[in-house]
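User: Hey, my collaborator sent me this sequence without any context and asked if I could get a structure. I don't really work with proteins. Can you help?
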Amino acid sequence: MQNSSNNGGDSAKGNNFLGLKSFIRRKHVDSVLVKREGTQQLAKKLNFIDLIAIGVGATIGAGVYILVGTVAREQTGPALTISFLIAGLAAALSAFCYAELACRCPSAGSAYHYTYICIGEGTAWLVGWSLILEYTIGGSAIARGLTPNLALFFGGMDNLPSYLARHTIPGLGVVVDPAAAVLVLIVTVLLCMGIKESSLAQAVVTTINIFGMLFIVIAGGYLAFKTGWVGYELPSGYFPLGLNGMLAGSGVVFFSFIGFDIVASTAEEVKNPQRDLPLGIGISLSLCCILYMLVSIVIVGLVPYFALDPDTPISSAFASHGMQWAVYIITTGAVTALCASLMGSLLPQPRMFMAMARDGLLPSFFSDINEHTQVPVKSTIAIGILAAALAFFMDVSQLAGMVSVGTLLAFTAVAVSVLILRYVPPDEVPLPSSFHESFDYMPLQSSGNIQEVASQDSKDSVIYSGSGQLFLDKGESSIQHPLLQIHIAQGVQNQLKRRKIAAWSITTICIGVLILTSAASFEFLPRMELILGMFIILCPASTIRKNVFPTPQNCAMPLYSPISSHFTVIKSQYPRLH
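Assistant: No problem. I've predicted the 3D structure and written it out in structure-token form, which is a compact way to encode the shape of the chain:
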């Protein structure tokens, strides 16, 4: 990928101020440039079924087997289901942003790639390393959590084989976990075999996990009908801890929906990204939300919320009804959920390294793709060794809470990138293929004489120059349209004005959101801070709607500015474009 050039002398001077040019420079969207330069590409082997398996497996972790008890006891009560619904709707908003950007820019790197295109190199570098930290610490924490769950099949931690059991290093007090390191290395080897093989393994493990959750729903629902849903027959009602408790619970369970962003990291390996990526992200998130809600309905109905065990809520709920054997099925579901989450945590990291190495932010070593498996094997091995070392030597459970910072940073950057791509888009955003086809045969008007220019060459394209000129690229030659120069110059000025308004409005909205969230987080701040934040958000939003939204007269291509405003002139002179 190539870095974009600056537009105009004034902007160039501003970007050079204090060396900010390298910090805010952006790269081309057009992934065709990579192919022309001979950069190695990942194999396109995934369809939307594979994406659903990856998304569901990465999202549904073992946390749901514990989280329902903690959140229901302390915050939501029987209203846990509504908390999951609200959190799912909030996650869907972020999922829509990822789906749009993944379709527009189907390349490896996920949030890092989108941020580099829309915001700049400095922010992209920060987002990329935040995600790498999140995935590495999260994967190591998951591997450490697998050991006690696996020990249940052996009868406890004391019955594990000595080469898998945890040991304490004398004198250092460090507890090593060989089983966790071995699990990370096994997943690393699986990921090195190829994306299709790893997605198949993910699908198998995820299917077992889903069947475990369906057993909880069906068997628990049967018991609840027999006992009359005692968990909902409470004198305190459906909201014993109030609406504030339900909303606070939504904030906690929101992190149970994190994982759909991993689907976007495989965009370069999808056969039909424009169709399959939205389907994969949307269906996987919907399935997770439905399963979470069904499990919460059953568990809270089986046992009153105040009687749930915060450590093993599901197993204890079944045991209270005489089904102690169900603990083995539930444990199997938890183990498979952890395995799927571990694969989901290690999958996007090598692709993130590869994307950063392509852009020159890491050594080119990490961008090498194996000729046989067509995956970044070197990056995968490096990440696997690092994660295995962390899982072996360190108890990263205390650091696991820090991964939410990287997640929120990535979600914020992606949401801002959508605003930028729509209203202040990079000049390198290519035309869609439909417009390329429209220009294969187009009547040209010049001084009242119609010149027919026909071409069957599929390589023909439309070129828009920064100086305000429009060309038809016909292989080696270009045809200039002098009659359009006045119209195009006026359109360029209007477009630059709209871009400035949109840029300042988006910046002001971000500042208003920051003020609003800060005021809502601290009770001692006056309500005036809330009013100020809302005012700062609403005023720029109305400005964007009035000055930036495409009107019916120039909305021929609203998402592909800055040349969208010129298509009104072109369409009026060349009716065939209608």
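In plain terms: Residues 485-521 form the longest helix (37 residues). You can pass these tokens on to your collaborator as they are.
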